[in-house]
Amino acid sequence: MRIAVTGTHRAGKSTLVDELSDLLPDHVTVDEPYHQMEEEGYAFAESPSVEDFEAQLTRSLANLDEGPGDVVFDRCPVDFIGYLLAHEDRDAFDLEAWLPRVRAALRKIDLIVLVGVEQPDRISLSATDDDGLRLAVDEKLKELLLEDPHAFEVEVLEVEGSPRARAKQVLAHLADASR
Hints:
The chain is of the alpha/beta class. It has a single domain (2-177), classed as 3-Layer(aba) Sandwich (Rossmann fold). It is 49% helix and 12% strand.
């Protein structure tokens, strides 16, 4: 089973990935592209540019091409589409050019777990967090995945609650799907 955990920044994705890693010990965990690239020396702008998000999108697509098996991905290509569509320079992003590659890559994912911003918000934000961007990306991701205007045609499970409750929702969904 190939699972991608998606959502805006500071929504609880990585915490859910950690929970799933404990509960699904047969699954390999793949860190999000930002951390992979940063570790390799990629220099991101303080406020990520369209080029930074496109580079992460490219890495996310490559991550999905790597080996078969049971994997939990921290982020998927749709995350970066969401960020690019919410970016102040979104007109510089050519969505149509990327859609065929994104659709093909998403066929390699069995389930996308969407971690949205909840009301009341479960995450404490620092003064440096851009809550406007965070909420705009959350809205874009829900539109992209739940309304599916670009025919991604991937199974999506939206989760809520505490990290453990979210993980239990994923496990229950997996158990139902295996029946």
